[in-house]
Amino acid sequence: MKTLLVTGGAGFIGANFVLQAVADGLRVVNLDMLTYAGNLDTLEPLADNDRHVFVQGDIGDRNLITRLLAEHKPSAVVNFAAESHVDRSIDGPAAFIHTNVVGTLGLLESTRDYWRELEGKAKDEFRFLHVSTDEVYGSLGAEGKFTETTPYAPNSPYSASKAASDHLVRAFHHTYGLPTLTTNCSNNYGPYQFPEKLIPLVIQKALAGESLPVYGDGMNIRDWLFVGDHCSAIRRVLDAGKVSETYNVGGNAERTNITVVKTICALLDAHHPLPDGRARESLITHVKDRPGHDRRYAIDSSKLQRELGWQPSQSFESGIKQTVEWYLTHQPWVQRVLDGSYRMERLGV
Ligand code: NAD
Question: Which GO molecular-function terms appear in the entry (predicted)?
Fold first, then answer.
């Protein structure tokens, strides 16, 4: 049975990936530091599953990583662990450098040393897959899309730290021969996303009839991908990607932020009208724009589609509908995040 060492597997995308991988019969050692973004509630379905081993720890802790690699002998490391929220990176960039840059370096060094000791097929087949973002490419004008050869031009402390980690991954292949793969994905949405990010935040606030904050004029464009499709792309790259290559991942679903917010309002109004009958669009409030807010992201994922045969399974319309339904039917999960109780048990409070 294949074992993967997955980092950040208690976060939004990592947990979706782990749930899927274990369901597909893989064994996962899940290393996560459990920052505010790590949520063990999400991994509850795996509580009694012996193909899932959870370890709390830092990707930068070389002794721990070395021990986990020696003990579990994974055939791949998949690195999701990161500080991931742009607004938090503006308020406090240091944590982003600690995890995304220094932490990734520690993980790379320990993995390189483990890989060097492997022999034969195990060495040939080993992979280090680094999960990254399209934000490393900066902002686009009205035309064009990011390709794998677009020069890096990160604009926020978050994207700068992810860009640095991508460069380290590249360097570990070119300098030491570590068999690396990198994926750069557009904005994700779907089940288990922390309600500080646009889509779950708007769903929660719209449900409660609260004002819906939208940055600036709301015309910033993001290219949305359903999280399950991001996970299937990572699995495809892991299985068939060419060592040292990078692959862009996206759903061809560019939407302005205001369109996303209005779509959620309409979906909720249709089945859960506000008691006073107001249309939820009337709750939209334009707030001061985020400093350095990138205007447009759009990703060209034709390399992944052409070379590895990957396709997203969801259109934005079907994915957003599923996501709204998921939040409606998983309010206890959301409430435990909002009231902080998802962290209390592990903090011993
Ligand atoms: P998230 O913030 O929901 O989860 C990150 C996880 O990493 C958390 O569980 C956290 O506890 C863990 N973590 C943080 N620091 C750690 C450390 N030092 N050691 C071990 N674990 C640590 O993030 P996400 O949205 O699931 O994103 C996962 C990855 O995908 C990130 O690398 C992010 O850059 C990338 N990505 C995200 C998106 C998106 O739209 N969310 C898009 C493209 C790429």
Answer: dTDP-glucose 4,6-dehydratase activity
Distance CA 64, CA 272 (A): 48
Nearest CA-CA partner of 106 in 154, 138, 66: 66
* 150-184: pLDDT as tens digits: 999 999 999 999 999 999 999 999 999 999 999 99
CA–centroid distance, 145 to ligand 1, in Å, is 24
32 in catalytic set: no
59-79 tens-digit pLDDT:
999 999 999 999 999 999 999
Residue 277 lies in a domain: no
- Residue 50: inside a domain, yes or no? yes
Is 340 within the bounds of a domain?
A: no
Q: Note whether residue 63 is domain-resident.
A: yes
Q: Is 188 in the pocket of ligand 1 (CB under 6 A)?
A: yes
Q: How far is the CA of 7 from the centre of ligand 1 (A)?
A: 9
> What is each CA distance from 90 to 86, 95, 158, 290, 335, in whole angstroms?
6, 11, 8, 9, 27
Catalytic status, residue 137: no
Residue 20: how many other CB atoms lie within 10 Å? 17
Structurally, the chain folds into a number of domains equal to 1
Q: Is 87 a catalytic residue?
A: no
The two tokens of residue 42 are 């999400």
Ligand 1 contact, 81 CB (< 6 A): yes
For ligand 1, whether the C-beta of 202 sits within 6 Å is no
What 3-state DSSP class applies to 104? helix
What CATH code is carried by the domain that includes residue 100?
3.40.50.720
Q: Which DSSP string do the residues of 187-217 spell out, in sequence order?
A: -EESTT--TTSHHHHHHHHHHHT--EEEETT
CA nearest ligand 1 atom 37, residue? 133
Q: What's the domain range around 303?
A: 3-194+225-251+293-313
To the question of pTM greater than 0.95 for the whole model, the response is: yes
**Whole-complex ipTM:** 0.99
Would you call 303 helix, strand, or coil by DSSP? Answer: helix
